[in-house]
Amino acid sequence: MTHSSMQGFVMNSLLVIALLPLALLGPGMAFVSIGGGGSTHVSITGMALLQKVQETCRAVAEKNGYEFNPTGSSPEELVQACLGPTAKGEVSGAKFHSALQEIYTQNGLVDRDFVNSAPHHFNSEAFLEGRSLITQGMVTIKINIHNENFQAARTTLGRVLHTLQDFYSHSNWVELGYTKPYSNLINPGLPLDNLADVNTHTCSDCASGTCPNQLLPNILKDKKLTSGYMGVFSSVKPKGKCSHGGATDLTSKINPRGGISKDERRQDNLAFYNAAVKAATDASLELLQDLRLAVGDEDFLRMMGIARSSVLCFVIDTTGSMSDDIEEARSVVYQIIDQYKGTQDEPSEYILVPFNDPEFGPMIRTTHADKMKEEISKLKASGGGDDPEMCLSGLQLALTGAPSSSDIYVFTDALAKDIELKDTIEALISSTKSKVSFFITAPFGRRRRSLRAASFDDYKDIALLSGGQAIQVSKSELSQATDIILDTSTSALVTVLQRARNPGTQETFPVTLDETLKNITIYITGTSITFTLTNPAGVTQSQSEASGKLGTIQTVGNLHRIRLNSDKQAGTWQININSNQPYTLKITGQSTITFIYDFVESFAGPHPGYAVLSGRPQAGQSATLMLTVMGRRGPSSMTAEQVGLAKVSGPESVSNGVLTQMDNGEILVTVDAVPEGEFVVIVKGTDKVSNSQFQRQSNTQMSLSKVKIQAVVDSSVEPGQAFKLPFSVMTQSSDGKYSISARNDRNFPMSFPNELTLVTGQYANATLTITPPASTESGTDVTLTIDAKSSNGVDSNYAVLRLSVVTKITDFIQPLCKVVSVQANKCPHDLSQCGPFRWELSANITDGNGTGIESISLHQGNGTLTYTSLSAPIIVANYNASCCSQIVEIIAVDKVGNVGKCYQSIAQSGVPPALTLSLPLWICLLISAFLVRP
Ligand SMILES: *[C@@H]1O[C@H](CO)[C@@H](O)[C@H](O)[C@H]1NC(C)=O
Ligand SMILES: *[C@@H]1O[C@H](CO)[C@@H](O)[C@H](O)[C@H]1NC(C)=O
Ligand SMILES: *[C@@H]1O[C@H](CO)[C@@H](O)[C@H](O)[C@H]1NC(C)=O
Ligand SMILES: *[C@@H]1O[C@H](CO)[C@@H](O)[C@H](O)[C@H]1NC(C)=O
Ligand SMILES: *[C@@H]1O[C@H](CO)[C@@H](O)[C@H](O)[C@H]1NC(C)=O
Ligand SMILES: *[C@@H]1O[C@H](CO)[C@@H](O)[C@H](O)[C@H]1NC(C)=O
């Protein structure tokens, strides 16, 4: 058995993770394709990602002295095991799931956004251009990971993997007899040799359209690399060239007819198909390994959404009247840092954005608790006075800088001066699904006039839209209200129910609290309010009982916070609220049962699929969303029974969707009658582990729109260069003028038409030009929102796009690591005697004419590595280790992320000890030998 067939076996039997439906493997593969349907791109990508994540987790565990022992193969169990002993509490797999989905989605979108681009699919012999997409993409991924722009990294990773995988399906690599990946595709320092030139005939005619092997004998003999020509709109191809093949390829009807693509598994191409899938999987692993070595294990895992999930993000008004508030924010930060240190709830990232008038920012983003303490201690209240401040500008920075689904807290005592940003803020909230809560310490009822008549209700609107809360308290009471921040700084927070009533009503809200929910907190905001809680057994507690049979109630300002006792009874609770003033109700808890979702639209073409919407879904048609429900033991441990869209603001209204289980484990939900106005996603189902009913709700409110904006960012942006972004706008509402506004969070200069005249049902095309200054640091990411609004303001929609500014890389030279000497003569032949003896190695590391070495590290080996100054032209690395640790792999990474390695083993040749072991153990050893292959 060769290594690569062994690997196929490994993945089919051992590393298949619950995320991937079994139907995609084994015999079920017959109905999917590398390029088609997206399924096999997803399964190849999924296998590679999950295998690489497991390897990385194991290495991190080993380094930190704990064992990586997942209790099962679900992503949530992998995350829990990967985070190690600190992950004692509830750990949510949601971010890992989301990261995987993002990569899969972007992979699939290459078939929509670049359907007719040969390089993106290695069609039509576009080898150099295709390779350039991969290598430039890898540069973008590395610099984005380095700058912690993980979302941008995932977007590019999904696309690059698609192109890389297509090479094996669309070229004749496997027909030439190769079984290993073509490493030169990810290594621009190496040439692409032996490409068939445009005049070389490559295929024989295939009248039936599907033939086992159409490649001409001399192409095979000379090992000439070629790929199939593909014409979606045209049948033209150079003489004698192979086609891609299939119904959508017009060139396949031109002699030589047929096609060489291995997109589909058929009886006549079985061997080549399987070889292509295997090579594509190995190639994906090879690319991921290069990324992992370049960025390091920890950042690789963070890019994959494997990190403690809580992020602490504060946006703080620093004008003169805010000194008490700043002091309180500081004290909360200290408390969270000190209290959660070393636990699962310790934030993995801290973000701080000050704002004043007229300045705001800069955003401070750090993973180091001490740095956050230092920065927040530096904040001083000054200037500004009572006037409105640049609150939304500060919030915009936080929303674009924080990871998606973050909790953001805004401290202010003034209205927003920059209220014109409200639409942008709302677009960013919908696209990031982050929650924004306000602590407003202005005197009640204070109403200030401002440019566009901002009011504190704007903050309440923003909070409600995002699923956050607007708390109004006096400055002296603020410290009692900030417990909310501690409640939400946890790794597995879920929202069970959120409702708002304006005007107030008397209403009873039933809610199912399941067994898994812990630390349940009920928040009621509003004035002149009475409420009563009733548990499933009929026990009640009213707002006047601060400490009752069901929980403890704390009231401060407009906030009532009720902590249910930890022995709460699972089942249906009733919350009766009575007020004639507006109020909100929110119930949260900690649980691993949660869900992620995206509103999507289907797209047609040769390889149809679903694309995530970047704005609001279209009015006048059913809404569709992709949903993944997670449980304690992965998706298989629960069933979703009801998924619907519900109104948060009364009266109560829920539209249930039709659920379709998708191949990749997701659920496609189609809702025909979408509620008017704003809605959230609700999910109800059964947890099979506790056999109890659960309910969950999304935080971010969404609504439909008659306007649609389409835009695709197809590459990174260079500093100092104007970048043109075509976009198109369509309305289903009446003809007329639509105002266009666009903003970016870096204040880079932009030009775009301020107005477009739309004809109902037709796309109008326009171009936005954005020019990052020449001094922009490579790796800067830019969040761009484009907004289109009808002249009467009734119809509007937005698109949120991310751009990466990346300096064009000219250094493709990998660092060179050369082993100069090995001294292992003291090591005994008998391994059991190795204990007291050591061996040594010396290596010279250079970066030739490259950008210079950035880091040197040990990837394998249990010894001591030292090296001379990184700035010298030749770096001398010395390694010594116990004779028991027989392998060393040294990794050198240069300043742009090119990776060089040296590998040395002092294992004595002879009969491998493995042969004397039982077969399963032998297989395991072979597998691990393969996994740690240099
Ligand atoms: C959550 O509940 C657990 C026990 O149920 C308790 O130990 C822990 O302190 C609670 N966490 C918070 C933040 O109150
Ligand atoms: C806008 O561009 C699309 C292709 O991107 C094209 O099909 C359409 O005709 C264009 N519309 C107008 C009004 O030019
Ligand atoms: C390794 O580097 C050292 C120090 O620069 C140099 O003296 C030596 O000749 C180099 N050896 C090789 C084999 O390049
Ligand atoms: C480095 O650059 C110089 C001048 O451009 C060239 O002569 C030399 O061959 C290059 N060396 C390497 C290792 O590429
Ligand atoms: C191993 O390397 C370290 C660091 O250079 C050094 O301090 C130590 O003496 C070496 N050990 C042996 C046995 O050479
Ligand atoms: C690695 O080194 C540590 C301490 O030096 C030792 O406890 C451990 O057993 C070693 N592991 C291997 C695989 O050699």
Automatic annotation (TrEMBL):
Residues 312-475 form the Hemicentin-1-like von Willebrand factor A domain. Keywords: Glycoprotein, Membrane, Secreted, Signal, Transmembrane, Transmembrane helix. Residues 494-592 form the Hemicentin/VWA7 galactose-binding domain. The chain crosses the membrane at residues 911-932. Residues 1-30 form the signal peptide. Its main location: secreted. It is found in: Secreted. Gene3D superfamilies: von Willebrand factor, type A domain (3.40.50.410). GO terms for cellular component: extracellular region. This is von Willebrand factor A domain-containing protein 7. The gene is vwa11.
